[in-house]
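Data card: per-record layout.
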Amino acid sequence: IHPFSQIVGMADMFDALTADRVYRKGFLSHEAYELLAASGGKLFDYELLKVFLSHISAYPVGTIVTLNTGEIGVVIDTPKGLSTRPTVRILFQQDRLVKEPYEVKLAENLQVLIEDVITEEDINKLKTVS
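The structure for this 130-residue chain is written out next.
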């Protein structure tokens, strides 16, 4: 299959995975990223897929994430080529609002990982419990 056709196929697959459908809610970006990455060497040429994925943010700006350190923050930037290692502005530590938010660059702190994504649904559930 021609490389241009494969690129269009990758874009179409990512769009289809992240879009809401009548029969299912769209996958979050990081979930679609992983599903697409798993298709390398099967559905798409592995090298082409690596380049394509380097231009897609697994955690788009504005995504609220929980880190393995227990901190919660919002993604504010993603370095080019490091789509799974964004910069996160920390807002909560151990369930307490921080007085002065600070940034953690996951691209530089390899021991810090994203554990979970907090969705709008999760936030709405917390509001109804309060």
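Known properties of this structure: The two ends are 54 Å apart (CA to CA). Helices lie at 3-18, 29-38, 46-53, 120-129.

See the next section for split statistics.
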